[in-house]
Design goal:
This is NADH dehydrogenase [ubiquinone] 1 beta subcomplex subunit 7. The chain is 64% helix and 0% strand. It is an all-alpha fold and 73 residues long. 10% of the residues are buried.
């Protein structure tokens, strides 16, 4: 996965540094939707699911790399 959102876009969207990863391009519209819908939990479901899936895939990629490095030692 590669980072799609630019630093400028993330700065304009006020994305905290801890969340500026390869999934930030999905977090920007999610946060806009959350603000528009007053953070109602049953709103913005599609955006939230896409963001959480992206984060999960990033996590699994890190786990696979760690396990591969562990096996090679």
């Amino acid at each position: 996965m590669e980072q799609v959102a630019t630093q400028e876009e993330m700065r304009e969207a006020r994305i905290p540094l801890a969340y500026r990863d390869q999934c930030a391009h999905l977090l920007i519209p999610l946060n806009k939707c959350r603000l528009k819908e007053f953070y109602l939990p049953w709103k913005c479901v599609d955006e939230r699911h896409a963001y959480e899936k992206c984060e999960y895939e990033l996590f699994m990629e890190r786990v696979r790399k760690f396990e591969a490095a562990k096996r090679s030692d």
